[in-house]
Design goal:
2 copies of one chain form a homodimer. Chain A is α/β, with parallel strands linked by helices. The first copy, chain A, has helices at 16-23, 44-63, 72-84, 99-111, 126-133, 151-160, 183-196, 251-265, 270-282, 285-310, 336-345, 375-390, and strands spanning 30-31, 94-98, 117-122, 138-145, 148-149, 166-169, 199-203, 228-233, 244-248, 325-329, 348-349, 351-352, 365-369. Chains A, B: InterPro entries: Aminotransferase_I/II_large, Class-I_PLP-dep_aminotransf, PyrdxlP-dep_Trfase, PyrdxlP-dep_Trfase_major, PyrdxlP-dep_Trfase_small. Chains A, B: Its cofactor is pyridoxal 5'-phosphate. Chains A, B: Keywords: Aminotransferase, Pyridoxal phosphate, Transferase.
């Protein structure tokens, strides 16, 4: 049998993190590799109540086919949350997604012909790279510093890539770096997008998980021409298992997203949508998010302390005020893959930084997750990581 | 603002049926347009028990991120169901999908470069056309008769389209015609696929809903070279709201499906998967399917009777032994769009047949659904349809 796959099949492999997660199931390994929320914080009892209420009140509708756009009361609840962060909108400009990952896939599908350019932070979210690659684009990477994507570099990239389809950015507690784009740059990004007539895809899964510093308005809040497409999710503030994300965009974009979502999976799980809406009706999600933030803050403090005390002093690292990740840079003398192998022998794991570069992989950094583990395990894992690193001394 | 969408955005509009469903929400309209299961048969109480059991026993895991492949006990339960219909397999060759619609999308994504050929029945499932069109293929339609896709026509089409990527077929109670491919043709289809070295995508959402005649083994049961990809769903036998489908295929295909599903939505709703698995553990799904079959059989009988008694005698129509649809052909003198408009005024609706042709739309047929409505409403709706048609006499 000869099988001729589409050319795009050459570009899409499995995600390094998700494949690593499978290997790391062994209980003796302390894994900082995933990007998982703390499961002990999931509001299991409240969700159980919401499930029963949904099935009692509207069982037949909750289990039937439904509209692609999504359950209206859930969209209305999201409208309120969008307004609270400075993005006034309405339910017509919201579409429920099967996780925000689907928003990445649909954005690629809607905008990218083979050879088109995507502009993104360097490094950037590996599953976004994977989603976009299915549509065979070129990637133009823009350097970051501690204040987010560099705007001088962005302008140079826009000049060098006329007709680029969109700028992909994760402004808050970026994955993988944990860095946040400062206020002034958010305004500048919109101004540059207006000037160079390009769409912005703002991916904001972590914005609500800010445990220090001052909240910044989304890039979309500065949008004057309806060119910012905003993507977020319930995965980090409620529960990722339900696969519920959303996209907020202007009508012409929205029409495309709805059509292509219809072709992709008809609609997202109706029952999950109704359970989420019922949960939001019966509970205070913001109070729940406060609990998440307190726990993640404490874990971040421990991990930062361990970086200072267990790892060699010369390592540069980010200092996130929210989200789930810290980015650690290595001296040129240490290859991150070799370090990863050494760490695995030491029963500790991370994601090596090379996975986060769409073009040439850099071997000089790794991502640590602190949300998914007790403080004791963080301490023990960081000790093991420090031991592995000390062998390079 | 200038927006340059991908070229594929020109090809994908919203599905006619799904858009019609929204219009047809008015209670005075009797709609035979949808393809919805009977919601009064959804096992709401059993699902409520399953939800509680899942949350009590494994709440944290049910709400967390999980593997792309899907929940293993659910895949194992599907293995048993596949074996029961003549397709021995194992969990490694099963992938849980976000509805079988996702399987259509992923198949397009994996196999189709722009300009590649998809071979399909004429007419065929409109949402499959929509899913494939996103990848800009050509469609080669193969004529059907009452015994399914015609094999002489298929061979001619294979000769005329060397390098066609796959044959898309719905062998059981086809959507939209309700026709079933006879046993001999299933074997012939595999033999032709082997001879012409082409993949078969067997879409089988309705096979389990057979209420008359003898069950036929899936096309995949005759697969000698691992070239048949089998797609099915829980939507018609359990509940569509959960968006749970599956694909069964050989390892090389499976690797691609897993990679591309990862890029599309990471994984399907874990909670829904665990609830389905728990339902299957605690209940007898086959007994439940018996109930569905009894109800649909009665509704089909009523609708067939009404076709004979309320509609003009010269109309050709299919006589399905299962599934959800009957296909009615019109004389050349009646344009189906005009009839549709006349019917809407009469508060009755169907899907006009033209939606089911990927190339040139034929205006000479329509699809009737009988699963979603009481016998009384079927009678009343068919009376209204007969009145609309009688104006052409």
């Amino acid at each position: 049998m000869t099988v001729n796959y589409a050319k795009r099949a050459e570009h899409v492999g499995r995600s390094a993190t998700r494949e690593i997660l499978k290997v790391l199931d062994r209980p003796e390994i302390i894994s900082f590799a995933g990007g998982l929320p703390a499961p002990e914080l999931f509001p299991v009892e409240a969700i159980k109540e919401a499930c029963s209420a949904v099935l009692d009140e509207a069982g037949e509708q909750a289990l039937q086919y439904s509209t692609t756009e999504g359950f209206l009361p859930l969209r209305k609840a999201i409208v309120k949350r969008m307004e609270a962060v400075g993005v006034p909108t309405d339910a017509d400009h919201l579409l429920i997604l099967t996780g925000s990952q689907q928003g990445l896939d649909l954005t690629g599908k809607i905008f990218l012909d083979k050879g088109d350019t995507v502009i993104c932070e360097s490094p950037t979210y590996l599953a976004a790279i994977q989603a976009f690659k299915a549509y065979e684009p070129r990637f133009a990477e823009v350097a970051m510093d501690d204040f987010g994507m560099r705007m001088d570099e962005l302008e140079r990239t826009l000049q060098q890539n006329p007709g680029a389809k969109f700028i992909y950015t994760i402004p808050d507690f970026q994955n993988p770096t944990g860095r946040t784009m400062v206020l002034e740059r958010r305004k500048q990004m919109v101004a540059l997008a207006n000037q160079y007539d390009v769409v912005i895809l703002e991916d904001n899964p972590y914005g609500a998980i800010r445990f220090a510093g001052e909240a910044l308005p989304p890039v979309k809040s500065f949008d004057t021409e309806g060119r910012v497409i905003y993507l977020s999710t319930f995965s980090k503030i409620f529960a990722p298992g339900f696969r519920l994300g959303w996209i907020c965009a202007e009508s012409d974009f929205m029409n495309r997203y709805v059509s292509f979502k219809q072709a992709s999976d008809l609609h997202s799980d109706v029952f999950a949508q109704r359970v989420a809406a019922k949960y939001l009706e019966l509970n205070d999600l913001d109070a729940h998010i406060q609990k998440i933030k307190a726990v993640y803050h404490a874990r971040r403090e421990i991990m930062m302390h361990c970086i200072e005390t267990c790892l060699p002093g010369h390592l540069k690292h980010s200092a996130p005020e929210g989200g789930l990740f810290i980015w650690v840079e290595l001296p040129e003398s240490i290859n991150v893959q070799a370090l990863f192998d050494r760490c695995l022998k030491n029963n500790v794991a991370f994601v090596s930084g090379d996975s986060f570069y769409p073009n040439e992989a850099k071997q000089n950094a790794f991502r640590l997750n602190y949300s998914n583990m007790s403080e004791e395990r963080i301490k023990e894992g960081m000790k093991r990581l420090g031991e592995a690193l000390s062998e390079y001394a």
